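Suppose you are handed only these lines of text.
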Amino acid sequence: MAAGNEDAKGITVKSERELDLMREAGSIIAEAKAAVKDALAPGVTSLEMDALAEEIIKKRGAIPSFKGYQPAPHMPPFPATICFSFNEEIVHGIPNDRKMQMGDIVSIDFGAIVEGYHGDSAFTAGVGTISASAQKLIDVTAESLAEGIKKAEIGNRLTDISNAIQIHAESGGFAVVREYVGHGIGRALHEEPQIPNYGTPGRGPILREGMVFAIEPMLNVGTWKTKVMADGWTIVTEDGELSAHSEHTVAITSKGPEVLT
Ligand code: MG
Ligand code: MG
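From them, the structure of the protein bound to magnesium ion can be written out as follows.
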């Protein structure tokens, strides 16, 4: 859905029972995220981090969302539990034998399914000591997500979220990725609507209680433009500059935005 579309059709509204299953998926993801964040270190591979996340998700009785995920017939199914993206990689990096090095920044995306309901969350963190500019990128990305989440209120419009993210990101000196966006989430990993991380406020569907969104700004140091690597999955910045990603699954409730992950 492009920003400005006023048609709210196709956005599912979750019952309290469905929200409880999504809360459980979110809590499993939060546990996996914390464990992986603690284990990040020079010399550790992204595949080891994938095994750690998968162990936690399965131990708690959930299913990894991304493993085997195939958004289009021309794409290979995603082969791992987490997406693990180094430095200029924005999203969808495939875990492998690459070892983290001091000064890297890594963006890690987690998905879990509980009784058919998905959660989706990502963070970027530094490995050991990182540059002040890389730390600022990470901080402004997380803050931009927080600004977007504040707008996930009953009665607001969808692009109020988009605009809040863009304003914070660009005032911090960073560019917002255009081609990849947030999304509705529930029985499917990607549901309506698409949630761009930029745009004019006051457009799109009116937000209602029980909608659940994966809000996920991706910020670049240089150009917002991206390209896809030969593996068909890994998205990198066109200019090779650093990128960061921050994502939560957020329910719109009568008490305000509820972060599930
Ligand atoms: Mg994600
Ligand atoms: Mg997502």
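What can we learn from it? The pocket of magnesium ion (ligand 1) is lined by residues 109, 120, 122, 216, 247 (CB under 6 Å). The chain has one domain: 5-259.
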